[in-house]
Amino acid sequence: MAANQAAPLLHSINDSCTVLGNSGRNTIYNLVSAGKLKMVKLGRRSFITDTSLRQLVSELEQRTP
Predict the structure, then answer these.
(1) What is the mean pLDDT of residues 28-56?
(2) N- or C-end of the chain: fewer Cβ atoms within 10 A?
(3) pLDDT-based confidence at residue 25 (cuts at 50, 70, 90)
(4) What CA–CA distance (Å, rounded) separates 26 from 65?
(5) Is residue 1 predicted with pLDDT exceeding 60?
(6) Residue 49 and residue 65: Cα distance in Å, rounded?
(7) Is pLDDT of 33 > 90?
(8) Whole-angstrom Cα distance, residue 4 to residue 63?
């Protein structure tokens, strides 16, 4: 990413799948239902917050020996 570009604050469902290592869409929706990821609506589109993705990864890192 270029130095003058900001990291996205919101990720589409498909982008979230990629961020989490090519997880499936069902996995993303299941994580939202479980309260592990935060979904927000912008217009008619649904997005996952970057903060919740980072927090999930951090929690997974702490659980992994």
Answers:
(1) 97
(2) C
(3) very high
(4) 26
(5) no
(6) 27
(7) yes
(8) 34
